[in-house]
Structure formats: C-alpha cells, structure tokens
Amino acid sequence: MDPRVEKRLGLKGLADKIVTAEQAAALIEDGTVVGMSGFTRAGDAKVVPMALVERAKNEKIKIDVYTGASLGPEVDNHLAAAGVINKRGPFQGDAVMRGMINKDQISYVDAHLSHNAELVRQGVIGPIKHLILEAVAITEDGLIIPSNSVGNSPIFAEYAENIIIELNISHPEALIGIHDIYVPGEQGKRDAIPMTNAEQRIGEIGIRVDLDKIQAIVISEEPDAPSLIVPPDEETQNMANILLDFFRSEIKAGRLTNELMPLQSGVGSVANAVLDGFADSEFENLVVASEVLQDAVFNLIDAGKVRFAAATSITLTEELQKKVYGNLEKYADKICLRPQEISNHPELIRRLGLISINTALELDIYGNVNSTHVSGTKMMNGIGGSGDFARNARLGIFVTKSYAKGGAISSIVPMVSHVDHTEHDVDVIVTEQGIADLRGLAPKERVKLIIENCAHPDFKEQLWDYYNRAFEATGGAQTPHILEEALSWHVNLAKNKTMKKEVTKA
Ligand code: COA
C-alpha cells in the first residue's frame, strides 16, 4: 500500500474495500438518490462523479444529487452536462448547471441550507442509496475525517444505505482535528444544542458511521477547484467603509462593543470584499461564525483581527489555497468546521447574536430582497444560508452594488421580481452609494432612506416618480404600489435591455 494511504487509513481492516473510481461508480444505481459531500467547491466528491461521467457515455443513468451546497466542476458542471443529474439540491453556483436548470433539463430544489438535515430525518429527502464522501483520513476507531467542508455529510452518513469514501491524500493532514461534528437527534426528543459561544467545541473530530455501510474506498489526489471570486474594487471597498462607520455608530449608541458580535458573511465577491475592509480598521478580537470561510477571513486572521473563525467549509482562491493549506498548522487552533445544520442553526444564530452580511441581487423600495432569481424567473445560484442567517441574526445586513450590467440595471426597483428575504428580515442595506438602517421603520419611512441613500443617482428620480404616484393611487396605503406598473422595470429590461425609463417612452 502507498505509505501516504497507509498513514491516512487508521482502521486497517478497511484496506480490502479499496477499489478504483470506475468500480465505485459502477455501484451507483440508476434512479436513486445520492448524497455527496461538498460545500461551495470545497471537500466535494470528485473522482467517483467523474467516473460516472465516463459511465454515462455508454449507459443511461440519472440520479438525484443532494449535497451541502455548490460543488466544483466535477459534479455541477461535468456530471450535469453528461445528463446524469435529474434533481439537484440544495444549492449550486455553476454556469452549466444554471443553464440546464433554466432550460428545464434539471429540476432544482433551492432550499435553506439548515433545513436539509431535518428533511433527511423526516424521510422527505431519501431514501439515500449512496453517500459519496471525501475524507482526509479514517481513524483507528473508524471516525471518518472530512476534508475542508462538512456540509450535510454527517446526516447523509447516518441515513444513507451505503457509503463510498474518496480518501483524498492531497489535502493536508493538519485538517485532522479542526472539525467539530455534533448531530442533533430527532425533533421533539433532542436536547438544546450545548453551545453558548461560537468558539466552543461540542462534538467529535470526525463522522461516526456504521462501518458495515462502507461499500468502497477510492484513493484520490484531486485538489478542490479554487474559488472564483474577484478581488475587492473601489466600490466594494467603499461599501466596507460605510459598514464600518455603521458599526462605529452602533458602538456609540451602546448596542455593540469594539469586538462586535460573531460575524457571518455570505458567499461571492461582494461579501468577501466587504469583510476584507476590516483589515485596516480598529476592530479586533473578532469572531467569525459563518457558513463559508472565504479569502478575507484568513487575511483577517493574518492581520490579527480575527481570533476565531467557525463555518462549514473553507473556500479559497488559488493563491489563498497555497498560502493556507501550505501552513494549515498556523491556523488550526483558530478555525473550526461544523455540520451545516449547526453553522446555520436558527437556535444558535439567535442565541449567539450574529451580525449577518449577505448579498442581494436586487431589493425594493420597501426592503424586500431578491437574492436568487434574475428578473424573477432565471435562477442564479440559490438562497443558500442567507435566509437561515438573515431571519435569525441580531443584525441582518444586505449588501449589493446599486447597479448591475454597466448601469443598465438598477439593483433597487419598485417591487422585487422574486422575494427571498421579506422586509421583516432585512435590517440594514448597504450599497456603494450609502446605507439605509431600516430597523424600527414603517414601509413608507423606509422609502426615503433606500432611495436617497442607496439607489444609483441615474435611477433616483424614476424611483421617486413611481413611489409618489403609487402613494397617490393608493391614498397612502401601508405599502403603496401600482400593481400594473410594479414590475415594469423588469419588462423594460427584457424589451430594451435597460431599466431606464426614457427607453420605454422612445
Ligand atoms: N439583475 C441581473 N443580474 C445581476 C443583478 C441584477 N439585479 N445584480 C447582479 N447581477 C449579476 C452581476 O452582473 C454578475 O453577473 P456576471 O457574473 O455575469 O458578471 C452576477 O450577478 C454576480 O453579481 P456580483 O455583483 O458579482 O456579486 P456576487 O459575486 O457577490 O454574487 C449573488 C451576488 C447575489 C449572486 C450571490 O451572493 C448569491 O448567490 N447569493 C445568494 C446565496 C447566499 O447569499 N449565500 C450566502 C449565505 S452564507
């Protein structure tokens, strides 16, 4: 046996389960539900899905795939393009898969990420025939150590009929010890989750499985696909500065201290850039209790700003992958990976008092947020954990640039074309133009702040024009709208490629 494999396979009795990726892929049955490890391109099953892609060249095979969140190209791109995926949940972020979802070639269940484990327990998702689980090691006593994400793997492992392990020896051994696996029991019979601060460890370092379910072990050396976020720009830097000033005013008002509260920051370039803004600030001793640890978190650990960071996955660009995975020992006592039902648990988010920062595609003049559907119909990525956090956070903040597609689109519209986060879950909005603190405000009070502080100057007049006429038309109703016109900006965009009104008149 390869000595590198021998080192990672503590339970030697499992050695006779080692097979090739092709042999493991041959075990997957057509028409079944398959759970896979992986969360936002981290810790995903890779070689067995790619062997399934090969198998699908000669044979019809279609499966339902559930994961933690989005996976790298092996599944969400290649497996999708090979026509193997019938249904996909609960999150994706790939251009190929997105295209197939929006052409009715894949059915997509976009769901709150904390909900999946409960649905597995209830049998709504399942029966799960196989779990394909990437691991860095199997300990002597049979604990499976996941790689750089945990996601839904513990609950899949409990309920799957069979488990195929991809033992990935390219991941650093120093990952052993950073996981904290705690799995709540059945609803109605479970105890309170015993965590009262975000730095507490409450579980085991690996996933405990019924060893008889381990059907195959495939040795892999495939690295994770790097994250594709783009570096901060002047506008996202500006958004970060606006947010930092807001935190300063909250400290002045006595609602926060310099350590703030545990921070959650969403996926994508904008959320990463905003978090990056803390690097040059006076804030320190920060704790991150998030879903994904992106580049910014490790930069903040290096800058001495973050003392501890917990999440369910680590998703890094190529540059940061080299830096972090090459020196993981340096970060090991400062980071922790948990199952997504713990990182995103409403009970803990509320108890710990998180400050949650997520990204909107568009929002309306009353504070409803659309994070998922372009012009109300086409899926972008999914709601991910944003709803888990926004509704339960102490402070639910949404960030977005005030415009998209070179200025043709206003991110602030009369009525959102799809609602992910209702006005009741949105406390604060930040764009590169400014901030709207909506807490304690009635809908009509919010309008002025959102239009004046957050909208792009090119669209302000048009937004006021809509609101004033809606106010008149409804006699100042609780939430004024002109229903025939509320989505006309999106109609204009579809017809004329811009939301600017002059074009409608032309
Ligand atoms: N209408 C149409 N397209 C829009 C748009 C709008 N109102 N606003 C943004 N876009 C487009 C951008 O032009 C860009 O397109 P491109 O990839 O072709 O350049 C794309 O959406 C991404 O926008 P960007 O400004 O680069 O932001 P981002 O990378 O931060 O992603 C979301 C923003 C909303 C797509 C992303 O954060 C997301 O999927 N969020 C939902 C899930 C979530 O919040 N998870 C975190 C929970 S922990």
UniProtKB/TrEMBL annotation:
Is the Zinc keyword given for this protein?
no
**GO molecular function terms here?**
transferase activity
Q: Which controlled-vocabulary keywords does the entry list?
A: Transferase
Question: Acetyl-CoA hydrolase/transferase N-terminal domain location, by residue?
Answer: 16-172
The family this protein is said to belong to: Belongs to the acetyl-CoA hydrolase/transferase family.
Record-linked PANTHER family: ACETYL-COA HYDROLASE
Q: What is this protein called?
A: Succinate CoA transferase
